[in-house]
Amino acid sequence: MSRAASNVLVDNWFERRSLALDLVWIAGFSLLTGGLAQFRIPLPFTPVPLTGQTFAVLLSGAALGGRRAFLSQALYLVEGAAGLPVFNGGAAHLAHLLGPTGGYLWSYPFVAGLLGWLVERGASRHAWKLASALAFSDTLILISGTLWLRHFFAIPYREAAIQGFWPFLIGDALKVALVGTSLPRILERLGSAGASPAARPGGEEKQDNSSSFVDNNRST
């Protein structure tokens, strides 16, 4: 597949795709999620802090495509369950996946995979399509986390939404806007850089002018 033909960002950075490169992307984005999890702002009225995790989840789906995005976030969960301090605040243990934020965490692989699947089918080429896919994916994370809180604490849905949904809308909207507006532009630039001279605007005309110049020199 040519660079210009791929809807997946990382496939536009290298001429050929390989298993080794895929593994690097998967591991890299799992570590990115863990790194952004350390940027946390505790909120006094909820056990769920503001973190950068969801940005990494959305970015993995938008940049890696379906399978690699799913695997990157699944690897992230495995890393945390195995004892690496990759969960928010440096937490690490399988028990963290069963705690108050478990609903968000378990949704990460599936949401990243779904978003990546949409990207592979062209959502990344248009800002409004990508923004819609990102907003839908982010909403799924919030809904999953809210439902988990409702059952974890046995509280009403309204209270669960106050603790796990509404406080995160503004921050998540900024994340969606950042990824949604930048990715299509990056793909467009990479596609233009990877296009053949004849496929670029004016490229065929320049080639014809060059040929005419050579023919004129020969005739003289």
Structural class from helices and strands?
mainly alpha
- Rounded Rg: 22 Å
Instruction: Give the CA-based shape.
Output: globular
What's the number of extended β-strand segments?
Answer: 2
- Amino- and carboxy-terminal Cα gap: 45 Å
Q: Tell me the CATH architecture.
A: Orthogonal Bundle
List segments where confidence is low: pLDDT < 50 over at least 5 consecutive residues. Answer: 195-214, 216-220
Strand fraction band?
A: under 5%
Tell me, rounded to a whole number, the average pLDDT.
Answer: 87
* CATH fold field value: Arp2/3 complex 21 kDa subunit ARPC3
| Helical coverage, percent range | 55-70%
Q: What is the ordering of alpha helices and beta strands?
A: HEEHHHHHHH
Strand order of the largest sheet: 1-2
Figure out the total of helices.
Answer: 8
Number of domains: 1
Q: Which CATH first-tier class would you pick?
A: Mainly Alpha
> How would you characterize the largest beta sheet?
2 strands, antiparallel
Helices, strands, pairings?
Blueprint: H1 19-36, E1 40-41, E2 50-51, H2 53-64, H3 66-81, H4 102-120, H5 127-153, H6 157-164, H7 169-194, H8 203-219
Antiparallel strand pairs: 1-2
Helix pairs in contact: 1-2, 1-3, 2-3, 2-4, 2-7, 3-4, 4-5, 5-6, 5-7
